[in-house]
Amino acid sequence: MTYTILLFYKYVDISKAKDRKDGTASQLDEVQEWLRTAAERLGLSGRVIIATEGINGNLASEGPEGVETFCKELLELEPFKGQDIDFKLDTSEKQPFPDMVVKIKGEICSTGHAIPKQLIDAGKGGKHLTPKEFHETLKAYWAEPEAEGDEAQSDEAQKQSKEKELVVLDVRNDCEFKTGRFMTPDGAHQALNPSTHTYAQWVPEYASKNVDSWKDKKVLMYCTGGIRCEKASAYLRNKGCEDVSQLSGGIHRYLEEFGADGFFKGSNFVFDSRALQKPEGATVVGACFNCKAPTEAISKDRVCAVCRCTILACDDCRAKLLGVYYCDRHLFLRNAYEPFLDKFSDAEIDQLMVKLQECWDASPVSSNIRRSIKKQISRTQAFKEARQVASAAGAVATAAAAASTAAADAKTEEEASTKAAAVADKAVKRKAKQRVKWNTNPRCRSCGLIGPTDLLEFMGRKFSDPVLVCNGRCTGFASDTYENPYRSLEFMNLPDFEERVREASRSKKRARSSSDGTDEPLVGSKRHRIETQAEYAEVEYEKRVDPDSGLALRHVKPYFYEYHTFVKARWIGRELLDVYANEFSTHPVAYYKKAIELGLIRVNGKKVSPSQKLADKDRIDNLMHRHEPDVRYCAAEDMIVREDEDFVFVNKPASVSVHPCGSFRRNSLTFILAVEKKLTNLAPAHRLDRLTSGLVIMCKNSETAAQVTDAMMRRLTPEPLADPKADKSAGKIQKAYLARVTGKFPADEASLAAYREKLAGDLEAMKPEADRSEYLSAVGLKPPGVYFAAADDGTMLELNNVPGDNKAAVSVSWPLRCADAGSGIWECAKPSNAMDTSDQGVAKAAVDDAKPSMSRFRLLAYDEKSDTSLLQAEPLTGRTHQLRLHLSLLGHSICNDPNYGTQGNLTHVRAEQADPDAKVVEALEESKLAETEDREAAARALCVACTQGMDVAFKPIQTQVESLDLHAYSYKIRLPKRDPIACTTPLPDFAKAFVSNASAQLNSVQRSADLLGGNDTLRLASTFHSLYAIAAQISPVPGSSGIEVMQADTFCLHCFQTLTGIKFFVTADPGARDLDKFLRGVYELYADFVLKNPFYELDQVIKCDLFDIHLDALVKQTK
User: Keyword annotations for this protein (predicted)?
Assistant: First the structure.
């Protein structure tokens, strides 16, 4: 998209006086209001300054129409009627300004009121030269003598060049001068650098000191657009300089006519997001302040450490100097004036203070630089004292302990108490001043490594192996943290750090209050959480049965819900409809346009047009009549496997999302637990795919959630830094999934040959470089490939309750990348997946943007009849759809996988169907929705689910309730300073089939041993562990084993403790009635009283009065 940029200014009187009779606004206020409304109406962004002396503007619009209309209307506005305003236009491919600002100031171009506008009104301004006239004048003075035989210079030019010496003044600041200036190609002639940082310094620090030397010379001056030359030329003429001329239209007009072929060399510094206006073929004339290499690199962080003015610094020096730069004026303070003191020792800080004192002594008395140095000396001294206080806190704590011991030996209890109290009080006061920040090493959120390197060096941390430091390629660090974390570190070490953070939070909340005076909640704020708590009481669930599958479903009644979203940085200056069209894909553009027109989508609580320009801090509200797809029903009571003061372990059903996201809010796991079990404010420590069932760890407080998350992130990588303050008992988490896959999964080395041959081409193309191999090794991963181990290294979680004794493990290491963000589809990154495999660069990019990932699998059982395998699966990294993709890569897709299974990708199936968006657009065109003040009625009328049906409102993948044959089965957690926690769910249905087959085989073996009576039939009940484990335990039981026997007329129930848990078995007559019902009742009792309230320990007799009473009642009822 091309933006048109407008630059203009005009010195003209604008009245500030208000009408005393009717109290109407002044002319200045009216102009300000007109500018704001015109900008909103025409879609303009930028900066406009108005004052009693005139107007100065820099605006932009999408395309030329907006600024062209603005120019016409401005010339019709009082007091600009009849004025000759030079409107300068330019273009840019990116958004020039983030928003629109109109300010009233004392001057439209600040001189510190050193040059009054009256000088311009009195005709003191210099002569305006067109770009051609300015060029010819420079040519007459600066051009080399022409060769013999060529036409001689004009008589007028020769005469002019001999009469007066030429002085070319740059009225801009030092940085603007260095990026580009008027000069000859060889540098023999060039404009004078004022060496100022602001225009307000031009008169007192430069012009006033040199004006006498310019009185008998010809003076040419220039600036960016001409506004600064207006007052500057008037000042010189008022001081006695008679021959003063200025470039009309400034550098901007000159480049329009001559480009890089004229006398202006380099780039023109501009005041929008471009920063520099570069004519085609321009040369670089700027130089790095440090290494003097040619550069014109400028950015917001390249500023002087003392005065914060912009400087030129090349990228190499930027990386090397770690954010510490100096302008020419303050370069003498280098190695003395240091903004980041945390990296210096106390001795080095003392040396800095000595150097600062020397610089202070050498500086002029009563100068600004002396004041800056004095502040830095005070700041350095305060920092040193604060650090000494902090480091002494540990010694104070030791002294406090020693004092307590000494006090115990005191002659009297009163004396001991007094001494101990005094020492403790002193320690508390010292401790209050201690600010320990970054005691632990910062870690990458993606790979778990520490880093980045420059941040660790800045913090003074030592590390022995650079390979163990994140290189930033995995995007685990946010860009602002990775690029420039040093100011944040300095801020964190301020004495009033905590109060500053609180005040910033309060200011942010005040700034984001809506313009109509209402205090709307921030997303994630305390008030928003309170409103969410209130929403729990409004939730209405229904239990339904799917007529086709017979599954019990949870249905949530439709409800009204209003989204609150604050404008993001990339949205600023864009139209409201454009943001919804490009950022949100839930509905077609026609839907969002109609929602805006009906007032369902508002900005700051007000109804706006679809073309409304968004500004910083705007709040977007979107009221919807919300439907949610049904999910599998399971009562919250039955989901909870274990609960304590810190954790809730939940057995999540398939089709239920862990937390509100996308199409699911009230039908999410956190909502269901909050509504049915009053477990509010739970923090999920991790997530499962919606169609994956199994164990989810919920934390009851943020501290526990942070520990679990940290343990998950660190489970592969060691701690390479020797940090004495770090906790030595690092956390660790092991997790295991059960998966049913197609085909017979390999269980030996020979079986893997076919897989490796299939992947050989991609493996060769993805052969990593040496540094990448070291990096993968550092995070505990292997290069891409398939690996076999006859026996795993002991890191796989031991499962005692599933069939099979296979110990061999197959590891798959393969990078993954997002293939379709809209559909949530990922893929195994392979060069062959690139759109243009003939282009090696494109093929390499298909791998470079992927994230390393690794999984480990173990074959548990194989069913020949269904040709499926039961696997233990463990993801070593936490990528999206990782297990599903790695198994699909091997050709053993997870059964019932709609995205990566053998039945094909549902997104492709949906693409072949009629486009649901087309139906929505067609319905909107046919409907005649009238505007109404009742927003809820309008939301219901626009609701796609209400008008078109659930099939149109949601994708097939969103309404699917059939589960994948993938189940999070077991977790083992070891956290610092906590006892280990192990939790396992009951076996999923797809795994019970494998267990039943194994049990039947063992059953026949036990029968042949004649362990049971002649006509008795062995019947097994489901237990917490598995049927397989029960069957294996059938044997004569000694009397001391703690068996409890409950006997009915036709059967006998035995329950006993084993090394793997509580076991049941029943002996019964072949014709026993209601035996299945009895066994189901036993299992329900067991699940209710044993799983949720563990009452047994190994080698102890089962004892739980409540369980025994209910079990006894069940036996009597069956009799």
Answer: Endoplasmic reticulum, ER-Golgi transport, Golgi apparatus, RNA-binding, Transport
Instruction: Quote the distance between the C-alpha of residue 1067 and its chain's center.
Output: 61
The answer to whether 122-145+155-286 and 526-714 have equal CATH topology is no
State which amino acid sits at residue 21: K
Q: How many CB atoms lie within 10 A of CB 607?
A: 15
Helix axes 131-142, 155-163, angle to 10 degrees: 70
Q: Which residue has the higher pLDDT, 1023 or 896?
A: 896
CATH architecture of 732-898+965-972: 2-Layer Sandwich (3.30)
Domain over 526-714 is classified CATH 3.30.70.580: yes
pLDDT at 940: 87
* Residue 588 pLDDT: 85
1058-1073 residues labelled b (16+ CB within 10 A) or e (exposed) = eebbbbbbbbbeeebe
Tokens 């406090």 label which residue? 400
Q: Biggest alpha carbon distance in the chain?
A: 134
SS3 854: strand
Helices (H), 197-244: 202, 208-210, 227-238
Assign 3-class secondary structure to 328-375: HHHHHHCCCCCCCCCCCCHHHHHHHHHHHHHHHHHCCCCCHHHHHHHH
Residue position matching structure tokens 């848990």: 1061
Q: What is the dihedral of CA 62, 67, 68, 70, to 10 degrees?
A: 140
686's CB contacts (< 8 A; 6+ apart) are 696, 697, 708, 709, 712, 878
Quick one: angle between helices 1105-1118 and 1075-1086, nearest 10?
Answer: 170
The 10s digit of each residue's pLDDT in 156-170 is: 555 555 567 999 999
CB-based contact 379:386 (threshold 8 Å): no
Residue 489, both tokens: 């570190």
Q: Is 882 helix (H, G, I), strand (E, B) or coil?
A: helix
Instruction: Give residue 1098's pLDDT band: very low, low, confident or very high (50, 70, 90).
Output: very low
**Nearest-angstrom CA–CA distance, 665 and 628:** 8
Contact by Cβ (8 Å): 444, 714: no
DSSP 165: -
* pLDDT for the residue 181: 95
On whether the CB atoms of residues 736 and 1004 are closer than 8 A, the answer is no
Label the pairing between strands 1017-1019 and 966-974: unpaired
Among 109, 175, 223, 470, the active-site one is 223
Token pair belonging to 916:
């649901």
Q: Are 45 and 6 in contact (CB under 8 A)?
A: no
For 344, half-sphere exposure in the C-beta direction (CA atoms, 13 angstrom radius) is 20
Contact 1021, 1082 (CB under 8 A): yes
Given the candidates 3.30.390.30, 3.30.70.100, 3.40.50.970, 3.50.50.60, the CATH classification of the domain at 3-104 is 3.30.70.100
Query: What is the third-level CATH fold of 122-145+155-286?
Result: Oxidized Rhodanese; domain 1 (3.40.250)
Coil vs helix vs strand at 828: strand
Contacts (Cβ under 8 Å, ≥6 apart) of 712: 685, 686, 733, 878
Is residue 258 within 8 A of residue 264, CB to CB? The reply is yes
| Burial class of residue 593 in the structure, from the number of CB atoms within 10 Å of its CB (0-12 exposed, 13-18 middle, 19+ buried) | middle
